Write the structure tokens for this entry.
Amino acid sequence: MTIPTENVGSLPRPAKLQAAIADYDAGRISKSQLETEQDAACRDSIERMEATGSPIVSDGEQRASSFATYPLADTLAGTGLAPNLAADGQYFAIFADGHHRQLPRLTGGPFRYQTYAADYLRKSITMATTPMKQAVIAPSMLSLLYPLDSEITGYSREQFLSDLCDECEKDIRQAFEVGAKRVSVDFTEGRLACRNDPKNPWTGRHMLEQFIALNNRVLDRFTAEERTNIGIHTCPGGDCDSTHSADVDYADLLPSMFKMNAGYFLIQLASEKNKERVYRLIGEHSRDDADGVPQVCFIGVINPLDPTVETPEQVRDDLVLAAKHIPVERLGSTDDCGFSPFSIDTKPRHGSPDHARDIAFQKISSRVKGTAMAEEQLGVMAGAR
Ligand SMILES: [Zn+2]
């Protein structure tokens, strides 16, 4: 592949695994029984993603409670919650269909991850025959664990942010050490930070610039060579086939987002109403030189919230149009989001999580085929980059 293509990270957990998580929360099965189901789901995810011809795969995050809470708790119900956390934190997001997801609340220091993404990858990478990627959570998301307006006695906000940056750096470095070829940082809170939702107070605090600065505090600890393989994922959310910030104009986000010194970006686009306008914005604001690395822009060509499978021809046409605005040597393709960032997700528009898994692999297959067709049409020659 000379136009790179990569998934975001997650896949729906099979109905059997979601039932096992509920049984584990209720104390009906042991942790090792849960892990047996997680192992089976990871193996199935990797084998089926490899069968799509994708040059890089993930384990579908089948062991993670969610893309944001894996360092903090074993399940979304809060089983195995890390020390110094209480369950009643801020809403991370309120979705368009009315449901919400909540973060824990920090009650004291020091802040430490209980689980690193590498703890999961270490088990999964033995199941793969193609290179693997790993997604990690951004420090900006976890900064919302600290109370919005008050100080924690004995643990200042600045000390927390310093500990948080150390933990995020460790999360990324360990993923590479375990063997990840690429690591992408989930930054769904970026677009939500522009939303100003009165029901969700942090979104009205103009926090985007401080999120960018915080994430750069971590990125700046990596060399340019390392940052070539460190990405940022932006999206309007994707949970239970619903979004949280699709109404935010990309013009409010992209100029700031590309200030992050990452080597690549996984950008939701398939579900945008005016794709060409966003391609143009990406072309205008992405940089050839972000402190030593070119910013490769992977445009979303697959909508994981919609059960209709995109054709390879649609994928090809999106990339060919994007190449009018984004230099082809900095162009890639991706899915708009993970297929199920949260472990408990019935995938309502798909009918069931198991059917949604079947659809997801068909969609990934279309992305891989369509990207190869775009290469041919654009005349990108093997070995040209
Ligand atoms: Zn996403």
User: Anything to note?
Assistant: The chain is about 35% helix and 10% strand. The radius of gyration is 19 Å.
